[in-house]
Amino acid sequence: MSMTKPTVAVLGAGALGAAIAARLSDTEHQVKLWNRTPERARAAAAASPGVTAVAAVTEAVKGATVVLTLLRDGDAVADVMNTAIDALDTGTVWVQASTIGPTSARTLGELARAHRVAYLDAPVSGSTGPARAGRLVWLVAGSQDAFDLAEPTLQQLGTAVEHLGTGVEGSAIKVAVNAWMTAATVAMSDVLALCDALGIDHKLFAKVLEGGPLAMPYALQKAVAMDEHAYAAGFAVELARKDLALADQALPPTPLLRAVQQRLDQTIADGHGHDDLAAIDYQRARLN
After folding, report:
1. I need a surface site. Which of 92, 97, 136, 229 has the fewest CB within 10 A?
2. Pairing label, strands 30-34, 7-11
């Protein structure tokens, strides 16, 4: 007996949205992909035969059991969902997966409640590579009923689906996670510069870290990208800077985070905003 494939609408065909759409297609979902720039959705769909690009956002969400928003910021999500929300079917769950911070997540939750739509505050930890491989970590907040509706789909996209609470805990912890990730990447670049000054081979430095409790796989991956000058965007510098600004909503920048922000600002000013976060190392790389 054949079973109907579940339909998921992915709103946002950026690098992460396109990777998630492709992964869902591989895992027996029908995927409708929408983007404000239709050409981007069409290009992503052309690379994934199971993904259909849809021109109208209202058409994208019709018939979907899960609607995923993967847009740049809270204002973009609000603009799109104010148009689309009345077209959602009864019983659809809206999974808000953009990194927008708890303030915007709370506002969007109020929008969902006003329209009686099940809503999850559910940003992800992980970039395009993990998304394509189904290795994201989902940081989910919302009602148990909404979580139960979305969990089977989210399990296909991640190695962990963490239900953290019933409010906006997902967006709150995502701000902290991204601040840590960005600060660690900047620290790795500076320590590689120290290694250069001390005459230490980078592979030896990495080997010492890997052998003990100080290993951080993400930072070690960035070290390799820095040494190879490999800046193809997994997580762009300008997005990291946007996410650090969300931390400012919680408290004034600490001295460390202020220094990290300044490093990102200089990297963007020098033309690397669209490059991967590893590009913050471009000045050291240029000297070698």
Report:
1. 229
2. parallel
